[in-house]
Write a structure and sequence with these properties.
There is one protein chain. The protein is an alpha/beta fold. The protein folds into two domains: 266 residues, Amidase signature (AS) domain (Amidase signature (AS) enzymes, Alpha-Beta Complex); 74 residues, no CATH class. It is built from 15 helices and eleven strands. Strands 1-3-2-4-6-5-10-11-9-7-8 form an eleven-stranded mixed β-sheet, with helices on both faces. The structure holds glutamine. Glutamine (GLN) binds next to loops.
């Protein structure tokens, strides 16, 4: 059962081969057995999960069921879920029990899915290795001496280790795609504005986007059907007609134009990653696709631009954590200013503080024009490169990450090396485009390699089609770590 796709689980539940309570309990048992090794979950609440499972089982009796009814889905701990501890991987929120549901959470609840638990993540989603979590590093299930990627590393490890059927992630600069690649699973970051950010703890609001992480493209499509949709509580949520993301899964790929940006295939990418990605491109040619050489000349500026804009927005978003209304408050302090200072000094970890300082600096008087404004201008040029490229191709492909999963602690002392793990993913967020990662082979040390597929705005259904056809022809996505 634990290796089944969402479609298979849904069919088994509807045919009453298994109940949601039994299914939920079997995942909880597996989590109990394997989570001590992996640290993929921060919070479990079997009572609440099983109550939802019982409710789902009554829905089957009444016949009012959808594709995800009764299926246990894990939620990244960045989503506020009513009655659940919601920490965002930080000591700052170590005691925050959310009084309300994020839009994404209420969409899953309405669909009758079971919230299986809250997954570990980098503190406030800042990181590429899941080592910045206050709750400890997550381990990669393919090799527990290695990182799972970040910031949605708990989700990626949980899906790869079959601790849940599927789970949610968020992606500000690569945090769905990079951990999906490093753990050998599939993940999709939708077009900015397609999934509501309401109740999703903000990191960099103009870049943050939630998306599904799962075993295969078809599962991601089913999750998108639940997650996407207009929500007036997020001012950047887009008002569009409801889509069925499964509609194009079975289209043939004959004549599909795949753009390969020369900048993605230049120095920096590991030879093992290059080999797996090139083999995947060859597979696409067999499926009828044609290759177009393209260029994204400004993409090389993505990392520096992102590390001005994301910290700027973070420094503003994180000013709300002041020890007054909720979250951590220093036990001892003098006056009000001292209380703020001590609470923030003790509540935030080193990486979060680094971002707040960079962000405050680039927004300060005298530096704003030189850094923030300049970065905004280059952001526009990066987006324009993609608009030009999509005149020649339908989707863009390349590696998701320059290397496979690195060792825990390997990049801890060097933030710039860590920032470079997102060199291929960040431009997509700056442009607001949809991007996904699917497993395409194994590289050094038998660790998974991810193929990145970047679509044009709102082209998620086509990207899912492109991924699904590859998954019909290959079996990389069905490989699972031995645990
Ligand atoms: N790794 C990037 C960062 O540290 C992206 C994180 C994310 O997408 N949330 O900011």
């Amino acid at each position: 059962m634990i290796h089944s796709s969402l479609t298979q689980l849904g069919a088994a539940l509807r045919a009453k081969k298994i109940s949601s309570v039994e299914l939920t309990q079997s995942y909880l048992d597996r989590i109990n057995q394997l989570n001590p090794q992996l640290n993929a979950f921060i919070t479990l609440n079997p009572e609440m999960s099983l109550a939802q499972a019982r409710e789902a089982d009554t829905r089957f009796a009444s016949g009012k069921v959808g594709a995800l009814t009764g299926i246990p889905i894990a939620q990244k701990d960045i989503f506020c879920a009513k009655g659940w501890l919601t920490t965002c991987g930080s000591k700052m929120l170590h005691n925050f029990v959310s009084p309300y549901d994020a839009h994404v959470i209420s969409q899953f609840n309405n669909a009758g899915a079971v919230n299986l638990g809250k997954t570990n993540m980098d503190e406030f989603a800042m990181g590429s290795s899941n080592e910045t979590s206050h709750y400890g590093a997550v381990k990669n299930p393919w090799d527990t001496a290695r990182v799972p990627g970040g910031s949605s590393g708990g989700t990626a490890a949980a899906v790869a280790a079959r601790l849940c059927a599927a789970a949610t992630g968020t992606d500000t600069g690569g945090s769905i795609r990079q951990p999906a690649a490093l753990c050998g699973i599939s993940g999709l970051k939708p077009t900015y504005g397609v999934v509501s950010r309401y109740g999703m703890i903000a990191f960099a609001s103009s870049l943050d986007q939630a998306g599904p992480m799962g075993r295969n493209a078809e599962d991601l499509a089913l999750m998108m059907n639940v997650m996407a949709g207009f929500d007036e509580r997020d001012s950047t949520s887009l008002q569009r007609d409801k889509e069925d993301y499964t509609r194009d899964l079975n289209k043939p790929l004959t004549g599909l134009r795949i753009g390969l940006p020369k900048e993605f295939f230049a120095e920096g990418m590991g030879a093992d990653v290059a080999k797996a990605v090139e083999a995947a491109i060859a597979e696409y040619k067999k499926l009828g696709a044609v290759i177009v050489d393209i260029s994204l000349p400004n993409s090389k500026l993505s990392v520096p631009v992102y590390y001005v804009l994301a910290p700027a927005e973070a420094s503003s978003n994180l000013s709300r954590f002041d020890g007054v209304r909720y979250g951590y408050r220093a036990p001892e302090y003098g006056d009000l200013a001292d209380m703020y200072e001590k609470s923030r000094a003790q509540g935030f970890g080193a990486e979060v503080k680094r971002r707040i300082m960079i962000g405050t600096y680039v927004l300060s008087h005298g530096y704003y024009d030189a850094y923030y404004l300049q970065a905004q201008k280059i952001r526009r040029l990066i987006a324009q490169d993609f608009t030009e490229a999509y005149k020649q191709c339908d989707v863009i492909m390349g590696p998701t990450s320059p290397s496979t999963a690195f060792q825990l602690g390997e990049k801890g002392d060097d933030p710039v090396q860590m920032y470079l793990s997102d060199i291929y993913t960040i431009a997509v967020n700056l442009a607001g485009l949809p991007g996904m990662s699917i497993p395409c082979g194994f590289g050094a040390n038998d660790m998974p390699v991810g193929l990145q597929i970047i679509g044009n705005y709102f082209d998620e259904a086509r990207m899912l089609n492109v991924a699904h056809q590859f998954q019909l022809a290959t079996d990389w996505h069905s490989r699972a770590p031995k645990l």
